[in-house]
Amino acid sequence: MKPAINTQLHHEKPQLLVIILFLIAGTCLRLIWATDMEWKSEEKWMFSQAQQIASGAIPLPIVGMLSGVHIPNPGMTVWWFAMIANFAHDPISMVRWVQSLNILTIWLFFFFVIWQIAPEERKPWLWGLAIASVNPLAVVLSRKIWIPDLQKKGRSTKAEGRR
Hints:
The protein has helices at 2-31, 41-55, 76-85, 91-116, 122-133, 136-141, 155-161, and strands at 63-66, 72-74. The chain is mainly alpha-helical.
């Protein structure tokens, strides 16, 4: 029985190393090219609102930006960026904060899986996270000043992990 356990551990260590390398690659991809961010009307509006709230020029709004189908988002969608605006005084530094929060979320999710998921069930969770961390669309979208990057983190990774 012991050789089977040792063989299983022998195969899991290289896989875990590859998964960690994916996470490191995802981290690096999120940190580079912060200036390659979208700067359209939505990002300009969110940055402007956040700066005005942070400076005290306007109060916390009850309603946020209108969605694509003209339904107003909750005001809390702007509050997150208003908190960041206390430390970020230009769009690039705000995007750096968004990128950093993305990276923090990835690593916290990794440690959550290691800590809370049974060892025999971790493999799909960790591989789902590894793939999601280097997903080109997720990396590009981590350079946006928009609320989906700060809310609902891990939802797609969680779904991949359950397969």
